[in-house]
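Each lists chain and fold; for instance:
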Amino acid sequence: MNVNRNKNIMQKNESLFKYLEYQRRHAPTISRMKVNLYKGFEVEGVAHAYYKIKQTRAYCPLECIMVADSYLMTHMGRNSTKLSSQKEKKEFFKTMLGLIHDVHQTRNRTFQVEDKPFILGDMPDGATDSIVVAVKAGVEMMEAGSDAVKVEVSNENDSRH
């Protein structure tokens, strides 16, 4: 009885391994990466590494570069992404547009057409204060180079005006 049971378990494991190997070889798009980048030199570094490993087993397609408001914490040393005043919100939004533009230009220069990840612009604090402000901000982010825009609504009131 144990021989049949062990044989059955081995067959199931073998089938699972064959399935996983098939997915790895024939469906590489199942797993994709998204990275947060903010500066052109960061995009250049990722592109260099991407093409270095593209022909290896470690390869995973890069689907998205996100330019996010986490820049406030990762590059500016702040404790959060919350902005305190309208002036600060406007100034940082201009910074975000510049970052998106830089990432967009560098992405177009460093990635081959068939490998280009899309750019996701993350609306910073204050960009969704109203629907009118959010639409205007989204358009500006797309004009700066975003291919898509991430919108966060922090409470029900944000979506009602």
